[in-house]
UniProtKB/TrEMBL annotation:
SUPFAM superfamilies: Concanavalin A-like lectins/glucanases
PANTHER family in UniProt: GALECTIN, GALECTIN-12
Primary gene name: LGALS12
GO annotation terms (biological process): intrinsic apoptotic signaling pathway
Source species of the chain: Tursiops truncatus
TM ranges: none
Gene3D superfamilies, per database record: 2.60.120.200
GO molecular function, one term: lactose binding
Chief subcellular location: nucleus
Keyword field: Apoptosis, Lectin, Nucleus, Repeat
Subcellular location: Nucleus
GO cellular component: cytoplasm; nucleus
Name the record gives this protein: Galectin
Length: 314
């Protein structure tokens, strides 16, 4: 890529926001592209022992005066005899009828992973992998462009993701906790063992950030004979994405090139009967056939190239 060369514009649905690690609370951030059905926000952290309450607000703006509308107000309260969660909507400076959920799934002194999943008509919330509540929108989701986190909470990571295109209907929680976030401490090249090979239903998730002057990115799968049946390769010189066979045969993937300098990316590989389905930044872009026996013989995942890795999960 030559200096000054203009990049093709990315469709809004492909733009993923880099995760934020250890933000200071109160924390207010713009949500890139706003909220829409099919997005997820992940919150990882812990509840302090002296916490009374905290709130996560999905706001329509970030002004202080006048106070912006709040489409979704998620408010766990620990200071009452029966801890609970309140959800509400602030419209025109007035709170609407609140919804209350008892049996709070969060505990003082305990860590948590909260997933906010946004559908067409309602938001679903899971806590530590278990569904907790759903809340119907009272304001259009399209108006939300700001995330606000306030109160007694320690946040280790905030992630902004898209629903996996492999989930039927796109309205269910991801399978196998693929949204788990980690600090950006993975070395590149990166190698991970696949002791049992790959079986139908397994998903490999790779998340990271493309470096400022990238050359290439490769994700290779090695079998028990140290052969490389298939490699996913992104070339920044000609901005192409391709499957490469063990014999070096290249099959171009006809999809927008989504690996851009200093952009966050997500690669998902779903194993199905005899094939691997590929999704980039929440968009399905095709598959490659290997045969089920070849998938079961895979023993190693290798990642290299001009990227910083946040997460490798399978």
């Amino acid at each position: 890529m030559s200096p000054g060369e203009k990049l093709d514009p990315l469709p809004d649905t492909f733009i993923l926001q880099p995760p934020v690690f250890h933000p200071v609370v109160p924390y207010v951030a713009t949500i890139f592209g706003g909220l829409r059905a099919g997005k997820m926000v992940v919150l990882q952290g812990a509840v302090p022992l002296n916490a009374r309450r905290f709130q996560v607000d999905f706001q329509c703006g970030c002004s202080l005066h006048p106070r912006p509308d709040i489409a979704i107000h998620f408010n766990p309260r620990f200071h009452t005899t029966k801890p609970h969660v309140i959800c509400n909507t602030l419209r025109g400076g007035r709170w609407q009828a609140e919804a209350r959920w008892p049996h709070l799934a969060l505990r003082k002194g305990a860590s948590f992973l909260i997933l906010f999943l946004f559908g067409n008509e309602e938001m679903k919330v899971s806590v530590n992998g278990q569904h907790f509540l759903h809340y119907r929108y009272q304001l259009p989701l399209s108006r939300v462009d700001t995330l606000g986190i306030y109160g007694g909470i320690l946040v280790t990571a905030v992630g902004f993701l898209n629903i996996s295109p492999f989930v039927e209907g796109g309205s269910e929680y991801p399978v196998g906790h693929p949204f788990l976030l980690k600090s950006p401490s993975l070395e590149v090249p990166c190698s991970r063992a696949l002791p049992q090979g790959l079986w139908p239903g397994q998903v490999i998730i790779v998340r990271g950030l493309v470096l400022p002057e990238p050359k290439d990115f490769t994700l290779s799968l090695l079998d028990d004979a140290a052969h490389v049946p298939v490699t996913l390769r992104a070339s920044f010189a000609d901005r192409t994405l391709a499957w490469v066979s063990r014999w070096g045969r290249k099959k171009l993937i006809l999809a927008p090139f989504l690996f851009y300098p200093q952009r966050f990316f997500e690669v998902l590989l779903l194993c199905q009967e005899g094939e691997l389905k590929l999704a980039l930044s929440g968009q399905g872009v095709g598959a490659t056939s290997l045969g089920q026996q070849a998938l079961e013989r895979l023993r190693e995942l290798r990642i290299s190239g001009s990227v910083q890795l946040y997460c490798v999960h399978y």
